[in-house]
Amino acid sequence: MTERTKPRKFTILLVDDRIENLLSLEEMLDADHRVFMKATSGNDALKQVLKNDDIGLIMLDVQMPEMDGFEVARLLKANPKTRDIAIIFVTAINKDEQHVLKGFEEGAVDYLPKPLDLLVTRAKVNVFEKLYFYERDLKMALKEKELVNNQLERFMYVVAHDLQSPLSGSMGLMMLMQEDPRIKEHEDLLEYTNMAVKASYSLSEMITAIFEFSRKNELQQTIEDVDVTELVNEIVTMLFPPSHIKIHIEDTLPVLSTVRSKLHQVFQNLIGNAIKYNDKPQGEIFVGVKETDAFYEFYVKDNGPGIEEKNNERIFKLFEVVDKENAESTGIGLNILKYLVESQGGKVWVESFPGEGSCFWFQWRK
């Protein structure tokens, strides 16, 4: 049973030195999914909190012998393990502003005066219950995202490792071809061979960068000045676009300080897809940028087949293949792209019209 499929229960610790008050409060707040724990002193309350990790709310009486509610709250907030538990003070004494402020200073998040109003008490507890489940669900979502990101990094490492050997062999053969007299006799063949060798070197550098990305965290990766115009031109050269596809690159692309391998991978994925999936006799691809306060918003626009609106989010999910007839697609590239963009605070999205083309946007922090 996963965390998401576990029964949703909300545990409330009731703290009061009078048993009748505890029973009355439990009856007032009783619900099928709620679990109640009771403590009749400050020391007892502290012991129960330390032994139970799933307490979502503490209803804490202020006026108790030996250790009052203020001291209990102070100790709970001083402990990293318990400081985030919501506390509602319940009291019949001193309702003036100064007394209430003291409660908030000690760590209370709300205050209920005695005698308790049934509707107000239920309403406040319901609010904290909803906040508890929202926070729990958010933590689980972040944990799941971190797991997926780790899986992607391992996947990238394996792919890069498996590509090294065949690429080294291909590079060796092409370098031999460069020296072959029969190749040198034909300028066109020699030019194509030189381009293939150059592209292989670029691919080798990219594989090395993938190794770096998969093994190092954000702070360890090299930050350098990247001329985006130069970067995009290198990618276009390496992708060998067919003659019927024209690629237009804005001359306003910036120079920015970033991890070159990440930006390279994002642009290569988008431009490569725009070339691969273009279905027009005369293909057009445009690469440009808009500037905001915190980000550069780059775009890669094409006149290809386009994407149905219902699939605009699906295409960025891991292993999600919208076109089932496309055997070449793994459903991985755009998910890695999304992760790379989001890892430095940006977002990625697509604007598309079926039959007319698509425009992929992504933000890159300045």
Report, as a whole number of angstroms, the end-to-end distance: 43 Å
Strand content: 15-25%
Q: CATH topology of the largest domain, anyone?
A: Heat Shock Protein 90
| Average pLDDT figure | 81
- The CATH class of the largest domain turns out to be Alpha Beta
Pfam families: HATPase_c, HisKA, Response_reg
Catalytic activity: ATP + protein L-histidine = ADP + protein N-phospho-L-histidine
GO molecular function, one term: ATP binding
EC number: 2.7.13.3
Describe, in plain words, how this protein is organized in 3D.
It is a single chain. The protein has 366 residues and is an alpha/beta fold. The chain has 3 domains: 10-116, Response regulator (Rossmann fold); 140-215; 217-366, Histidine kinase-like ATPase, C-terminal domain (Heat Shock Protein 90), CATH 3.30.565.10. The chain contains 10 helices and 12 strands. The strands form 3 sheets. The protein has a 5-stranded parallel beta sheet with strand order 2-1-3-4-5, sandwiched between helices. The protein starts with 9 loop residues before the first strand and ends with a strand. Residues 324-331 have low confidence and may be disordered. Residues 11-129 form the Response regulatory domain. Keywords: ATP-binding, Kinase, Nucleotide-binding, Phosphoprotein, Transferase. It holds the Pfam family Response_reg. Its EC number is 2.7.13.3. Residues 158-366 form the Histidine kinase domain.
